[in-house]
Amino acid sequence: MTQTLTAKDSKSTAKAVSRPKSGGHNAERLAYLFVLPALALVVVFRIIPLIWGLGYSFTDYDGMSAPRFVGLDNYIGIAHDPVFLDSLVNMLILLATLPIWIGLPLVLAILIHQGVPGGKLFRAVYFFPAVLSSVIVGAIFNVLLRYDGSFNLFLKAMGFSAVDWLGNSSTALFSLIAVQLWATFGMSLLIFIAGLSTVSAEMLEAAKLDGAKLLQTWWYIVIPSIRPIIEFAAVVTTIGMLTSMFGLIYVLTAGGPGTSTILPEFLIWLEQGKMNRPGYASAISMVLFLMMAGLAAIQIRIMSRNADI
Amino acid sequence: MKTTNRILRAGTMLATALVMTLGVATSAKADTTLTVWDWKSGDPTTAPYFEKVKTDFEAAHPGVTVKFVMQPHDQYYTLLGTAIAASQGPDVVLVHGGSQAKERIAAFSKLDDKIADIKTRVAGWDEFAGPDGSAYAVPISIQGLAVYYNKELYKKAGLDPEATPKSWAELEAICAKLKAAGTTCFALGNKEGFGADFFYSAAAANALTAEQQAAWTAGDLKWSSPEIKAIVQKWVDTQKDGWYAEGANSTAKFMDEYQSFERGENANTIGLLSDVAHWKEFDEFLEPQNVGVFVMPPVTASVNDKLRMPLAGGIGYAVTKFSPNQDLAVELAKSFTATPAMQVFFEAAGAVPSDTAVDTSKVESPSAKIVLGSLSDGAPLLHNNTSTAETEEWHRQSQMLFTGETTVDKAVARLDEVQAQAKKK
Known about the structure:
By secondary structure, chain A is an all-alpha fold.
């Protein structure tokens, strides 16, 4: 009896010891199960297409015949394609405007945070265009910016000459950038307003007591305090600039005049959809992917370094 | 934990059961559905024609449903390309004649041995033929280019509204007189480059011999050849001479250009013969007696005794190779050319039908009479026989010629390069 009891005790003790371990495994399995759908979506809709795209970029695939391996021909073609090279120049011009994309919402966010009259109204007004689709924004500005549109009527009424904003190569890209900036800066503005709420009120009060001027407060206290937020906004905005202009280009200029508003993402669509060259389009996609990955890596590296500091 | 696992297991089983049930339900459906892709079936003017085709076909084929899927025109070939690449989607597809059809022939079924009964009645087959001359789509309309003009504005400028130009010099004289009267000579929209397409195609119709047209189609007649270069030069000259309103590069041809013409802001426009931007549409806005039509004279001497209207098979229906209902799909494609349906197409939409048996004798529009009278003796439509790569490059170059970013020499040199690459491919 004693022996039996001892065996029972020993068995239940072992079970008690192993229970947490078994429960841990189950929890781990369950955690994987919860992650699985998201992981599957990423693999199916991101990773596998990326690998397929890479494969197609080495073929002459035209969407109809079986793909034929052509080695680096597509990449060599891209390097000599004047339309692609022009699209890169346009992309660099677009990237060069990044400081405006960050600076404008930052300044406005600081002003709203500091309580300018009507701040809440301004915040809503600035953010409103961000909820509109690029096609709607394009349609609105098509009416405003066309040669006989409202903007030129206003200019003429003021005694100035009309400008073909969307039909002239020297103004078309900048018009597009301005419209896209108007349509999207509200998102950065909200991010900055959220970031500003973390700035220490005591520090701002101390600066005020020490006689710091407004600009000094911004430069030495506010901006350094939200530096990680600014860097995050810079990464997100850069990616958005390179991947979210399609709708606007499509509606407002169709890439013209000439190549003046063709960006790599628009060229990918042109080669894939209009020219029936998915293989070539895939090669351009790969180049764009590498450029974006490189840019994002640099920006993230800067962010991490500053975070360490 | 056990409860969670049980719930998850039960959910998975339920989902599996649901999918299986749906699968069984789908496979149990015996009727056949033929899916047709186009960009026109939702248009109110063409709707009666499509309805007639659907009703007649379904009545003749019990158990078969015809399903029209109207796609946006400007993205049509992108979507079609995706369907072709995936080898699934529509059974029957609408395509433009010429390069748009010919560059996709690998995805379409050959129709030669199935169209003998309609071959002579229907016109426009060449635009849907493969390199071997086989037919790959059934044409439903004849399309072409004509210059429509506003007789009222001609009169105001002191011009005889019935005297149409027979040479480029005469056209230049008309434009000079219109300009002096403060009227813009031509409406032009070149935002997508279509204005430039229509210009060179219309100007080339009577400038090239049949051999030169064939050489162009084969990629042997270069953009830098004297005949084509002269047209490109005139594209630039006409802009410098003030033929067009400002802002052509930011004006859409469809439909901003035509709306401008319909509002009486310009005296001429290069329009189509069929379906849209054509005599019926302009008649509605300007009144039939005020709409005139003529063939664009060539910029060089005409190669024809009488100016011929540039025309070709307009749009047609192809059967996709991947359609599981090949025979039915071919029957459906052919049924679009049935004379009763084509009669509706002509009367409701003003389309110029490919079916030569359609009765057009009752038409009263003066411009329609001229258009219909020109069909028997047309000239090739050059831009239909141009590769997509050249067309895209011409769109870009035509805009840059207007902005002054390039010269005629540089433009044709670049186009020669693209033409050579397209031919090599």
